[in-house]
Design brief:
The complex is a heterodimer of chains A (about 325) and B (about 270). With about 325 residues, chain A is an alpha/beta fold. Chain A has 12 helices and 15 strands. By secondary structure, chain B is an all-alpha fold. Chain B has 11 helices and 2 strands; from the N terminus they run αααααααββαααα. Chain B has one domain. The chains are: A alpha/beta (about 325), B mainly alpha (about 270).
Chain lengths: ~325, ~270
Amino acid sequence: MITTEALTKRYGRVTAVDGIDLTVRPGDVYGFLGPNGSGKTTTVRMLLGLVLPTSGRIEVLGERVPRHARRVLGRVGAMVEAPAAYGHLSGRANLALLDAAGPGGARRTRRRRIEAALEQVGLGGVDRRPVKAYSLGMRQRLGLAAAVLRKPDLLVLDEPTNGLDPQGIHEIRDLLLALNAAGTTIFLSSHLLAEVELMCDRVGVLDRGRLVLQENLAALRTPTGRVVLHTPDVAAAAALLDGQLSERADDRLVVRAGDPAELNAMLVGAGIRVRELAAERRTLEQVVLAATTAGSDRVDRSPGPAPSAVDDSTGDDSTVDELAAEREGAGA
Amino acid sequence: MIGVELRKLLRRPRTWIMILLLDALPTLVAVLLAITDIGPRPGAGPAFLSAVLANGRLFPAAALAIVLPLFLPVSVAVMAGDSIAGEAQGGTLRYLLVRPVGRTRLLIAKLVTVLVFVAIAVVVVTVTAYFVGTHLFGNQPIGVTTVSGTVLTPRQAVLRTVLAMVYVALSMLGVAAVALFLSTVTDSPLAAALGALAFLVTSTLLLTLDAAQSLRPYLPTRYWLSFVDVFRQPILWRDLVRGMALQGVYLFVLLGAAWANFATKDIKS
């Protein structure tokens, strides 16, 4: 669906995107993560032909961008940063104008498609009021309606749930998952980890212009080989598991154990009451924090020698721990 | 695409407010003239105005002469300056390009839209001026006296007025091209419009400067008032043709520059 090779963008001396190799497969819900200023938006803009790459190669839906952008973009629905519309016109009028502006928007089916798209994003009953009277959430929904208007094969979305309340976020997530189930590939750029964790099956993490991680979410979240145990009998449990204990705080113990079920049986056999027991999994937040540095919006007072970026760490097989270790080594 | 841009133009309240304001100035002048009955001395003030008191049918030409030097170019600079930069500022430019709309096509559609705006403005000004003129001033159905002193038949007068309208409208090509070019350079419609106005003011100033005499034939405003030549008998084509050619050159060069800039620009708005 999307493939980039050594994609690079320089603005003068600043390298915004530094040789990234993205692979988004058909049917993916791909979460594109990274701190502020890491190059997410520049990458998205390059995929859509808005920003021209300094070097590297982009293929979207099997065709080169920006060379064949006109052919490709008709099959792509996009939301780049904030949604935008003409404030003095109604939402319907805005969609009609946008639809008429490009190829593939048949006039015959336009009204029906607009109503269907508005219905999908929860604006079906919207009146004729101009967009400037819309709330932030309504604008966001209108932007999504514009993206799904022509039933694209690929949706490229940048923070699609920005400005929505929890109810709205839930609705939009359901909508996107339903579209994905119906065959739409979704490329979701976000820094809302919870959102990505709930929706995506594959993530790419960008840090200071480099793709430091690209992996299936399930693979990132395999059990760590440790078990988290909550028990009122802390002392007894600690005594029993002496050699396997790796963390202890109040009634919470972290135990190195391969099989939680076996551990449970052992504890119960020893008469220790178990309140909670679960295999420890790394959260996406831990994964991302380990792979990235602070965003460019953080400006520290006395900058030390700039830590150099991790080299050649974009392969699928490099693990987060290795990355973190390399990073620490580089920063020291 | 052109159809979409025209719909945007016509559905935008600002378009009509500008045309209304453009129309109000000659009407105000006409009312003042009619009330006071004091015309400018022949040779002073805008062209034709001294003759209007005698014959209201000349007022459309006088109205064009009133809006031509400042009001019309200002409105053109605002419209053309807004064309790309306004979309960029509003964030709609990226959605248009991703739709996808070809960049060259968008640029051409914007230029055509500005020209349509000028055409509407000129027609509205002329038609209003005709009604205002014939109602407030004397209405001689026999004919219109030309600048050369001969008399035109009503049919000839209409033809000449239409010719003058076309010339005035095409005289705006240069300003439109400058504003459109600047509009692709900056993301601020205000900056683009002001830049085009600065260009206009420079040209107007240099025209009055004897030291700039050698530049004079190349200044975009040099032949603007030549539309008066349409009302000579016979029509004095020399300056009219030069004026058109000059506007054509400005349009060609600046549209080329706008295209070269816009077609390869990184859209970061």
